[in-house]
Amino acid sequence: MKAFCEQLSGLLTTFGVLLVFVGFIALISLGENASAQSRHCPLEGQSNFRDLGGYETKDGRSVKWKQIFRSGELPKLTDKDVQRLADLKLKTVVNFLTAKEIEFHGEDRLPSGVQPVSNPIESDFGDLAITIVEARKHADFSKVPPELNAEIHRLLVSEETSRRQYADFLRRAADPENRPLVFHCSHGVHRTGTAAAILLATLGVPWDTIRDDYLLSNVYREEEVKLRLEQFRKQAAENRGIAPDEVDMTNFKAFYELRGSYLDAARDEVMENYESVEDFVINGLGLTQADIDRLRETLLE
Question: Where's the Tyrosine specific protein phosphatases domain (predicted)?
Answer without folding.
Answer: 167-205
